[in-house]
Specification:
With 291 residues, the chain is mainly alpha-helical. The protein has two domains: 180 residues, no CATH class; 34 residues. 65% of the residues lie in helices and 0% in strands. About 2% of the residues have low confidence. InterPro entries: Patched_domain-protein, PTHD_SSD, SSD.
Length: 291
Amino acid sequence: RLSCIRNNIWLASCGVLSSGLAVLSSFGLMLFCGVPFVVTVANAPFLILGVGVDDMFIMIASWEQSLRKKEKSSVKSLLTETYSEAALSVTITTLTDVLAFFIGTWTAFPSVRSFCLYTGTAFVFCYVYTMTFFGAVLVLNHKREQGNRHWLTCMRVGGGEDQAENSCLYNACCIGSCSRQPSQPEGEHPMSIFFKKYYGPFVTNKWIKLLVVLLYGAYLGGSVYGCTQIREGIDLRNLANDDSYVIPYYDDDEKYFSTYGPRVMAVITESADYWNETVRLGIESCAQNLE
């Protein structure tokens, strides 16, 4: 916004910080519990950032909507209204994500198990920080706006009686509005108007609802069939870059050596006197018998 008061840069930064705190808390807890840290876990912060920022947008949108409904209400009433609107969406998305990743801990691959443990726990912390830390930041930011304070310095901004005599840039940076008129309440977002006036009536049409039910039935049937056909496994070639020397190695290994099966190794668990010829002959005889 072109307003030094309504600008929400710090609010957005705190939303990202909330995701970062969730990652730190999750990693710290898992490392404290002795869960091994593998390379794939390094991808978890990007997933948490995506979900955390999405939750941040939901909270801010609900807060702005509450302000439009109850502009003169108390902070407690505004925050109550915000949580009643946003908490359900944030909770459902968090529960589905946590459930998906904790189900992934049943896998036989230790690296995938560690990744799911770290990421699922991070989602839990992200939810906690969004509901507590970010809610407090919303209130502090609202009090800053109510106090007519600058978004960067938090110093009180002038009333702007002589806005007409100043440049537009000065008004935006030092007074709070590029307009020559006093600031007005913001209207509805164009996306909200689209969903309310066009998308909502389209989806609630009886023929469209029937089509959606049929499509969902087909999707559900395909998903159930796919679950019965899935096999757990991993192709090591998919873990390397396309131009890596590993790719032709696995291609040649599959082409020329796949008929022989996996390599088998015999391990002698006791100490052996390899300098003794009799012992060496015994080991060679054992290897021949195994072959």
